[in-house]
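[Meeting: bench + compute handoff]

Bench side (C.D.) handed over the final construct sequence. Compute side (W.E.) agreed to return the predicted structure before the next meeting so the bench team could plan truncations. Sequence as handed over:
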Amino acid sequence: MAINSLTTAYIGVGSNLSDPIKQVNMAITALKTLANSQVTAVSSIYGSKPMGPQDQPDYINAVVELQTSLMPLALLDALQAIENKAGRVRKENRWGARILDLDILLFGQQVIDNERLTIPHYGMKLREFVLLPLAEIAPRLCLPDGDNIATLAQNIPDNDLKKLIF
């Protein structure tokens, strides 16, 4: 299938199990080989405290900018295939430790809300480990509701987020 119309998508990448830096780098490599898509920017890699239960290891996070001709659900399926290949097991506890977590943060200026996918990602405005890496690679980006990423990133507490790899 030829790449016709491209959409800019932003993918959140996170891990806190099985050598998380290796998992994040493996996911970025996998995204670079995704059909009908091209990685156009990758943030630094950050270390963050877990959002949920604190009795789990710290997370490693990054954000990837992707130009893709895939439709949103096809992209979601591709991301879940990458997670599954890494050994991700989906559990009831959505805030628990995980080998790999790939989230579609934004898909162009689309707003999607169905049983499989919510875009913009429902929690992105509340997560320093999303906003700060996203602002690093797309500081002029505006969300579908008009909010500016750079402004959101400036106003969120950093919660000891640390840039680990530039």
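W.E. noted at the follow-up: Residues 15 and 23 are 7 Å apart (CA to CA). C.D. will use this when planning the next construct.
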